[in-house]
Amino acid sequence: MRPVPHSHHHKDMAHSKKALGLALAATVSILVVEVLGGLWTHSLALLSDSAHVFMDALSFGLTYLAIVFAEKPISDSRTFGLHRLEVFAALINGLTVFLIALVITAAAIRRLHHPQPIHTLPMLSIALLGLAVNLFVIWKLRPLLGEDVNVRSAFLHALGDALASVAVVAGGVVIYFTGAWVVDPAMAILVAAVIFVGVYGLFRDSVQILLEGAPKGLEKDKIIAAVEDIAGPGAARDLHIWSICSHIRSLSLHVVLPEARMKDQAAILAEINLSLERKFNIVHTTIQIEPEGGSLSHA
To answer: Are residues 287 and 155 part of one domain?
Structure first.
């Protein structure tokens, strides 16, 4: 049987774009405020948090662009469209954020030895504003968590931003009441550490996609079990799973059926595709069905 093509299926695209667009706009707004506020108040903690916000704004933007790319028609020379641009952009921008965090960390270490006064009340006010914006984004995204993996990712990034903002606010409160300027660079280093962990995850996931490795969280044994629940024990052969970009998973598979079940192959194929979509969010599949005893039955 010839491989069956499947079009890219994106559920609730309009809802995802709206939610991600809102998250992106709010995050970019607080990014600008924190950068300007950090420079004005001389707070490294605010500047470090702004780098963290920049990383999450990047994530929202790339995910938004990925949805836009998914809506564009493919071409003869690019049969998967421009989805891989998301991965290359993530690598380049991840390196940029890493260098920013490195510079802030170096400055914070110097300031630990020679603390400098900051404008505490404005710094605390800006940090509280950042926390409020993050909580607003979380509130807006939470009702849509069940609709799209992209929205869930944005929600987790906003949650991380909120936690970083809590750390900066706590530092500002301590400085306000104690005058311990050393707390500011200490908070900057703490947030920078969170950035380094996030950048590592970004690089790891991007390289995994470029090497066409199995998507994180997908277990081969579970996929085989789901297929064989439908097609029968030992039916799944020559399974390959990879990602086109962060939100499009692809699969190729041979399914071997007894001769008596070959007449039902169309129904079996449809049921397998439905199961793969519901259980693993795999919507781009190439599945070849072979009769038992054929050229692939020994694979």
So the answer is: no
